[in-house]
Amino acid sequence: MFRNISIVASSMAITFALVTGCVTQPDSASDPASAEPEAIYRTIVRLGPDGQLEQRTEAITVTEQQAEQTARAAYVEALRDGTRPSPQVILTDAGCAGADMWLFDQANLAGNELCLFRSGLDPLGDEREFGLICRSLGCLLTWNGAIRSLWAGSDRGFFFHCTPTLCFINPMLHTTPFQRINSVGTNPYNWIELLPP
Prior knowledge:
- The protein has helices at residues 2-20, 62-81, 87-91; strands at residues 39-47, 53-61, 101-106, 110-116, 126-129, 149-151, 156-162, 167-175, 180-181, 191-195.
- By secondary structure, the chain is an alpha+beta fold.
- Strand 1 (39-47) and strand 2 (53-61) form a beta hairpin.
- The protein starts with a helix and ends with a strand.
- Residues 1-36 and 88-94 have low confidence and may be disordered.
């Protein structure tokens, strides 16, 4: 008799839990295997033939970003070994390929990404103001003071902070071609000058 009461009580508890929603069912959205890849935003900036700034922002996945970093690491390693790949691989750059300066808004080359490439229109170098460059769709965020890590491309770069009337040399960051910096910390950088190697 006690056994029957126990079974009835257990059945009632399960029914109550199902009715009130206390029992959680497996959610396919919480399953890492079925989750969509996390999207990040990449902005690609160039100077057009007329000298005007051209930029576009696109969504990419973390997996795509990491694959590009792996490809660049292989390219840089080939340069060090003296087995230089074809110049087209690095210098012909219609999107965000290996020749660009890659900037990130998180440490360790993570987060949203900014790709800059020197136009060559000015032999002395190109300047970019980060406050004019979008860091999100709809340009709700800009790259002003947002750089947290970087991987230089085929050009040198000078990062500094400017007001409308004055640019400061402290703080300033200088990069050499293909230099990788995993953390630049919190900084006020709002300008970059890209110079020939």
